[in-house]
TrEMBL record:
The enzyme's E.C. designation: 3.1.3.11
Positions bound to Mg(2+) 1: E84, D103, L105
Cofactor(s) required for function per UniProt: Mg(2+)
Source organism (scientific name): Pseudidiomarina aquimaris
Signal peptide residues on this chain, from the entry's feature table: none
UniProt subcellular location: Cytoplasm
Record's protein name: Fructose-1,6-bisphosphatase class 1
Sites where the protein binds Mg(2+) 2: D103, D106, E269
Record key words, sorted: Carbohydrate metabolism, Cytoplasm, Hydrolase, Magnesium, Metal-binding
GO BP term, pick one: fructose 6-phosphate metabolic process
PANTHER family per record: FRUCTOSE-1,6-BISPHOSPHATASE-RELATED, SEDOHEPTULOSE-1,7-BISPHOSPHATASE, CHLOROPLASTIC
Cofactor binding note from Swiss-Prot or TrEMBL: Binds 2 magnesium ions per subunit.
Length: 330
């Protein structure tokens, strides 16, 4: 089986990007090791702090963030990093070519129940103009040079793209190496599976409720087929399932918190996942536009996310845009 770096050389990926992914996989192995040690490593549970998003920080959130930050900032190709756990950006090398946005431990409420979590990353070019500070990161997702995630599950997997399809690597713990186990995943165009946090039903727009009602109505409803539902509550794990066997994943607009209608973040959740999904032939939309075309206005900006099997994303959007002629057997 092929190892990570030779695969990238074969794909003629730029040396700087190879160096960045190499650094990321070193961090991934460290985080994976601590997670698999679980309670034995004394890293489960929460800190007394909240992150910039107002969420309780888990000890492993803090540890993963520190690891990624420290190790990435030693890489001479890294101009700056932006993290879910940091209010502002952190500068690296002044002549570094790349900006890295990351969510160090996505789905961290799963840590304490020994369930799946992940690390998400997005690599953008460092601007050559006079932009500085956080403004450097405010580029639409279609400018990403590389994006991916590490899924810490029964096995640890590294899934990423440099714009030439997806590469899936599995950590062989016997030799401590990521080995290529799948390439060019393709998301089936149609699906009978969806992922949404149903407990928020009452907070959604009527159009989203109506879309979900029709999925739930199954073969006796307008969709004329039964749908299954899955919700792991870690975007990495839910998107991984969609990449492997199709499906629709959404965290839509809702009215729970006044002025804060979205949960997921653009720069280190929406954009990297959108890049992967599109590379696998799927679609990723905010409800208003293609995610990767959004011009960001803040490194912690939140957006709606609807992604997965292309035809199902289109059907969902037809409800949201009020244009659906009730599907009969989509
Ligand atoms: O980043 C936030 C996150 O943990 C995602 O990974 C996941 O999809 C979602 O929140 C889970 O949300 P909820 O708590 O509503 O199930």
């Amino acid at each position: 089986m092929q190892r990570l770096i030779p695969t990238l050389r074969r794909d003629q990926v730029a040396e700087g990007l190879i160096s960045v992914i190499n650094t990321l996989q070193i961090c991934a192995k460290e985080i994976s090791y601590r997670l698999h040690q679980g309670e034995l490593a004394g890293v489960l549970g929460s800190t007394l702090d909240e992150n910039i998003q107002g969420e309780t920080q888990k000890k492993l959130d803090v540890l993963s963030n520190q690891l990624l930050k420290d190790i990435l900032l030693e890489n001479k190709f890294v101009r700056a990093v932006a993290s879910e756990e940091e209010e502002g950006i952190v500068d690296g090398f002044a002549d570094g070519k790349y900006l890295i946005a990351f969510d160090p431990l996505d789905g961290s409420s799963n840590i304490d129940i020994n369930s799946m979590v992940g690390t998400i990353f997005s690599v953008l070019p460092a601007p050559t103009n006079e932009r500085s500070g956080a403004d450097m990161f405010l580029q639409p997702g279609h400018q990403q040079l590389m994006a991916g995630y590490v899924l810490y599950g029964p096995s640890t997997m590294l899934v990423f793209t440099t714009g030439k399809g997806l590469r899936v690597f599995t950590l062989d713990t016997t030799v401590g190496e990521f080995l290529l186990t799948d390439e060019n995943l393709e998301i089936p165009t149609d699906t009978c599976e969806f992922a949404i946090n149903m407990s928020n039903y009452r907070h959604w727009q009527p159009e989203m409720r109506s879309y979900i009602d029709d999925l739930l109505a199954g073969e006796t409803g307008p969709r004329c087929k039964n749908f299954n539902m899955r919700w792991i509550a870690a975007m990495v794990a839910d998107v991984h399932r969609v990449l492997c066997r199709g499906g629709l994943f959404t965290y839509p607009w809702d009215n729970r918190k006044p002025g804060k209608p979205y949960k997921l973040r653009l720069m280190y959740e929406g954009n990297p996942m959108a890049y992967l999904v599109e590379q696998a032939g799927g679609k990723a939309h905010s409800g208003e536009q293609r995610i990767m075309d959004i011009e960001p206005n803040d490194i912690h900006q939140r957006i709606g996310v609807i992604l997965g099997s292309a035809n199902e994303v289109d059907t969902c959007l037809s409800y949201l845009q009020g244009s659906q002629s009730k599907p009969s057997n989509v």
